[in-house]
């Protein structure tokens, strides 16, 4: 175990560790804090919108279709920018690439509240580009720099991500009256991005390196044999991508539309925001426990199917009787959506090396989010066409069932 931890710190710093164990431990803890703060920023930009979406739409004179486009942008950005993330990291270094991601995120959060509907879409595009880059790069940091603790760190990273999502949905409504409306409330999340950026730069400076060695192993140099290995013809890579895409489709439909669905069923705005926050918050205990447990077993299929069943029951309840028990549906939905932590764990476990992890992460998150991008838009469009939520939820139910099937196949102990 000491050998593994020593190698992990060398990945972080780019240098051989000192003989004193204390600096190594502190360096690892500081990098872990930076990773957690970065992860906390990867959902508020999205979940904060859902709780004020109707006010944004009314204030800007926009349609449900515009709202659908707004909730679709994250998936599209995650697809395009996610595929470009490994190349950017090779070009400027992993440390700089993560810093750029956080800076772009903060910039977009400010830009999107400065003007009308087009500017909101443009600013959201910028913010989600930063999120997309970090989505792909942070798991590579975890795999390469915490090799002896992949399951644990993936769980911590995912828990922080979900906590950020809960904060975005639950804190934004109370911030509205304090900060002068939805514009101030949404822009305030840029502060969190700035804090994460500063801590990331300090952490990677204090550890005396640029994390170059982690990037070197995770994303081979141009022209190397490993760089040209494509996973596009590997069936397992497509299964993992489909699994990731289905769970992402569910997540972004929920984050974008659940408050509106609940409010249409008679739930107050504040309660709808809290329920969406609860959905995200419930992923915390799951993320902190199940990935570490699942990583110790050869197959993760049982865990994936079990969480998927919770999602099926929740979607069915929201479709048939949304006002009967909003709290129960939200609890079940939160448990179902926590399969995200296993989706990230599966990416790491289905690859033997950091290089393959980077390739699989880029493919699964890039193409997976591309598959998921149409989800929120179609959900809103189906609502516009039918005038109710039944048909959109039938569509969502099909997505969750597909997630279970693909997740079962992705969880089996094989390698790309």
Describe this structure in words.
The protein is an all-alpha fold. It has a single domain (2-220, 231-410), classed as MFS general substrate transporter like domains (Growth Hormone, Chain: A, Up-down Bundle), CATH 1.20.1250. The protein contains 19 helices and no strands. α2 (21-40) packs antiparallel against α10 (190-206), α6 runs antiparallel to α10 (190-206) and α8 runs antiparallel to α17 (339-349). The longest helix has 33 residues, at 354-386. It is globular. The two termini are 27 Å apart. Residues 1-19 and 209-223 have low confidence and may be disordered.
Number of domains: 1
Contiguous uncertain segments of 5+ residues: 1-19, 209-223
Mean pLDDT: 81
Q: Could you give the distance between the termini? A: 27 Å
Q: Main β-sheet, in a few words?
A: none
Order of helices and strands: HHHHHHHHHHHHHHHHHHH
Number of strands: 0
């Amino acid at each position: 175990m000491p050998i593994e931890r020593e190698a992990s710190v060398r990945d972080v710093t780019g240098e051989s560790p000192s003989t004193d164990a204390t600096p190594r431990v502190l360096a690892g803890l500081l990098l872990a804090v930076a990773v957690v703060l970065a992860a906390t920023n990867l959902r508020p930009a999205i979940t904060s919108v859902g709780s004020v979406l109707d006010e944004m739409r009314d204030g800007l004179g926009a349609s449900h279709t515009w709202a659908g486009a707004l909730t679709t942008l994250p998936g599209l950005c995650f697809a395009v920018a996610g595929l470009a993330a490994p190349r950017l990291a090779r070009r400027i270094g992993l440390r700089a690439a993560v810093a750029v991601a956080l800076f772009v995120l903060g910039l977009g959060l400010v830009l999107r509240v400065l003007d009308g509907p087009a500017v909101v879409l443009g600013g959201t595009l910028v913010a989600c580009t930063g999120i997309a880059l970090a989505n792909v790069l942070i798991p590579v940091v975890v795999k390469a720099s915490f090799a002896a603790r992949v399951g644990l760190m993936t769980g911590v990273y995912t828990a922080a991500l979900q906590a950020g999502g809960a904060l975005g949905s639950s804190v934004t409504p109370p911030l509205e009256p304090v900060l002068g409306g939805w514009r101030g409330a949404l822009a305030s999340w840029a502060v969190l991005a700035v804090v994460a950026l500063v801590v990331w730069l300090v952490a990677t400076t204090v550890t005396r390196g640029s994390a170059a060695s982690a990037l070197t192993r995770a994303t081979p140099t141009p022209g190397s044999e490993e760089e040209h290995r494509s996973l596009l013809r590997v069936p397992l890579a497509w299964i993992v991508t489909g699994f990731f895409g289905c769970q992402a489709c569910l997540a972004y439909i929920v984050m974008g539309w659940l408050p509106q669905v609940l409010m249409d069923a008679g739930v107050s705005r504040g309660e709808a925001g809290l329920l969406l926050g609860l959905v995200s918050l419930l992923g915390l205990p799951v993320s902190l426990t199940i990935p570490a447990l699942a990583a110790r077993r050869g197959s993760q299929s049982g865990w994936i199917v079990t969480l998927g069943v919770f999602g099926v029951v929740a979607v069915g309840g929201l479709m048939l009787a949304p006002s009967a028990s909003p709290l129960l549906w939200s609890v079940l939905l939160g448990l179902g959506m926590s399969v995200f932590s296993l989706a990230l764990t599966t990416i790491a476990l289905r690859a033997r090396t950091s290089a393959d992890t980077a390739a699989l992460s880029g493919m699964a998150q890039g193409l997976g989010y591309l598959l998921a991008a149409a989800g929120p838009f179609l959900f809103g469009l189906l609502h516009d066409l039918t005038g109710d939520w039944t048909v959109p939820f039938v569509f969502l139910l099909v997505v969750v069932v597909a997630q279970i099937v693909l997740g079962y196949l992705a969880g089996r102990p094989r390698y790309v």
